[in-house]
Amino acid sequence: MHEVWRVDYEQRAVDAATWADEHGLRPAGEDERRVCLLLVDCQNTFCTPGFELFVPGAPDDSRRICELVYRNLGTITEIVCTLDTHRAFQVFHAAWLVGPDGRHPPAYTPVTAGDVERGLWRASDPAEQDSLLTYVRALEAGGKYRLTVWPYHAMAGGIGHALVPAIEEAVFFHSLARSAPTRLETKGDDPLTEHYSALGPEVGGRRNDSLVEHLRTFDVVAIAGQAKSHCVAWTVADLLAVAPELAPRLRLLEDCTSPVVVSGALDFTVEADAAFERFAAAGARIVRSTDLL
């Protein structure tokens, strides 16, 4: 889980067909009990050491996700993968902001409404200054995480944007072994807002109602990926807010997700654990990858 490689699709396709035949796997469309595995942002940018916004713990999480997929080939009906998708000029990247000295902020700089009001940070493009101020005020009013300047990450078209190869391979294998196309959901390309949740941006924008309705068709929705404190937590929170009836069907894989921790800068462990406690109180089940789905 520490390396990036090219998946040999042709050989994996042969392997998947052979495995399905030898083990009598039926097409997922015949499943009476429908199980969805929702993988949140299992991308190199978060999961592979040396990449832009590496989450400590992610390599082991990824290994356990792969083991889960292969162990449950006959149980998982469909896999849904979300993909954080960014470009250079977005409100949470350094290029969007500038200080009085004309310099861009370093990565992991927090930006509050007060900072913007005092001129500590302003939009690099003067035309976006009002939007910036409106945004940081809305974050604070809505009880969201304050704006953070993240390293350039999950850049569309870049290698960091791609799924971790081991997970990509496992997902590809499942899709062919079960005749079940993988569903890919991109998020995060609105320049004016962060977009942690797979279901909608932090401020404004449109909710991904089609994904919500799709998840409603499953008897079980197991959720894993990165990061526990941000994109996983916000996705689960949004899902419970708009579809609370799904709570008993949710399985949160606690050993397949980790919080954002940056030595000397950020540690969201407490926030991540508190979020999972809230989800459990709402009816979701906290499980491990070795538990039955």
Overview of the structural elements:
The longest helix has 15 residues, at 9-23. Among the domains are: 9-35 and 45-86 and 152-207, no CATH class; 94-148, no CATH class. The strands form four sheets. Strands 7-2-1-8-9-12 form a six-stranded parallel β-sheet. The protein has a two-stranded antiparallel sheet with strand order 3-5. It has nine helices and twelve strands. The two termini are 24 Å apart. The model has no long low-confidence stretch (mean pLDDT 97). A hairpin with a 3-residue loop joins strand 10 (261-262) and strand 11. Helix 3 packs parallel to helix 6. With 293 residues, the protein is an alpha/beta fold.
Structural class label: alpha/beta
Secondary structure: helix percent: 25-40%
Shape: globular
Strand content: 5-15%
> Treating each run of at least 4 consecutive H or I residues as one helix, how many helices?
9
Task: Give the N-to-C terminal Cα separation.
Answer: 24 Å
Number of strand elements? 12
Query: What pattern of helices and strands is seen along the backbone?
Result: HEHHEEEHEHEHEHEHEEEHE
Mean pLDDT, rounded to whole units? 97
Which parts are unreliable, with pLDDT below 50 for 5 consecutive residues or more? none
Global Rg: 20 Å
The largest pleated sheet is described as:
6 strands, parallel
What spatial order of strands do you see in the largest sheet?
A: 7-2-1-8-9-12
